[in-house]
Hints:
Layout: H1 11-23, H2 28-39, H3 43-50, H4 55-66, H5 75-83, H6 93-103, H7 113-118, H8 121-127, H9 164-177, H10 185-206, H11 213-232, H12 235-253, H13 259-282, H14 286-303, H15 306-322, H16 326-334, H17 343-359, H18 363-379, H19 385-390, H20 398-411, H21 415-431, H22 439-455, H23 459-470, H24 479-491, H25 501-515
Amino acid sequence: xxxxxxxxxxxxxxxxxxxxxxxxxxxxxxxxxxxxxxxxxxxxxxxxxxxxxxxxxxxxxxxxxxxxxxxxxxxxxxxxxxxxxxxxxxxxxxxxxxxxxxxxxxxxxxxxxxxxxxxxxxxxxxxxxxxxxxxxxxxxxxxxxxxxxxxxxxxxxxxxxxxxxxxxxxxxxxxxxxxxxxxxxxxxxxxxxxxxxxxxxxxxxxxxxxxxxxxxxxxxxxxxxxxxxxxxxxxxxxxxxxxxxxxxxxxxxxxxxxxxxxxxxxxxxxxxxxxxxxxxxxxxxxxxxxxxxxxxxxxxxxxxxxxxxxxxxxxxxxxxxxxxxxxxxxxxxxxxxxxxxxxxxxxxxxxxxxxxxxxxxxxxxxxxxxxxxxxxxxxxxxxxxxxxxxxxxxxxxxxxxxxxxxxxxxxxxxxxxxxxxxxxxxxxxxxxxxxxxxxxxxxxxxxxxxxxxxxxxxxxxxxxxxxxxxxxxxxxxxxxxxxxxxxxxxxxxxxxxxxxxxxxxxxxxxxxxxxxxxxxxxxxxxx
Length: 527
């Protein structure tokens, strides 16, 4: 059997090295670095050993500093924070700041590259750049430690609660932990936002057993904002926050809730799954998008919400359409009629019918559906819970209706009507509020309008109409409308354009544009 004394990095070896290096005047940082190098300790563990402290001693000092009887730190939690991200639990920002005070470290000293890679972007930003030089070591008085009288260790703050000296030291630490210099306005803003986020998470955990109404209201506000931002912000940038918000809803659903609150949570879960499905589809993960849309439908079924049933089922129909399965898309869309309880949902279903019937070669049926959609469009009145309340992706605006109708007119080879419909849709988008401009739907309308120009032999007009599309950055190049853009390559390769330098140049530009898409940018580094 190997004795404790003979284990690499055993307590005996650590203490001997610590005392020897202290006698040589080495700093705590140098001792921690040597221990990490020699025995492979994680940074927070190495700093604790450099201080000669046990996990229980660190937990005790943590509790003294925070004086919070409802959230006592334990040695086990310190252990979890030390081994993360290879297991354990991620240390929140306020824990890292407190540990750095206890251990006499700069907060950056407690993190290595593996930690920084795994930390959320908000915490990385709040920490700021790593300082070039660590702060000078302070001495820790011997009566703050129960296991020795090392004069080379740093002083832990005395007192708890409202001690003014502690407050000044904490303020100094917060200033220096943002990069060794006074906080800039931007760094302070990020620190405040990170602190607010952690407080929200802590409050959420405290409210899991009986959810406060404020929590549900804040969740509803977050979901509404995400849906609206989904229109005009690259949705891959929102994926991480949307996923975290959905997981918060899931955690609350796992607890006992009042029936009314549980209904609202399922409502929010369905909306969030629709948003995640749309993002997954936009970067080419159609199977994942389908699973998320099915989940959204299930939540709508649980609470008997017709709007969510229609939206999630039409999303499944769209996925079938983009997978070249128009008959499956038509069947899924047709099944929504039973839930189309108001004229907004009826219009949504009829517009889908027109497109899918056109794709199946049912010209007469498609034309009837298009004309019926025009009639319904004029009769849409009143408020709709998803249309007006949530909005964003669920906003079935006149512009969006026309954009989908344009796709049907193109499929029917009614290019004049398709051009007029696309032009009207784009005018409505461009004259509206910036936050109502759905860049994906605008791109689709522009592509279809350009297609009409190509088929009419008007290549210069086609180039002009594609200009806003071809200016989109990679993160906004979504698979569903790129599929329509790529199909233009076939129409530019017909015999009538043989030898045309304009057609050749436009085709080359489209190929280059489609070479780097949102899928190449996903997952976004903020997710």
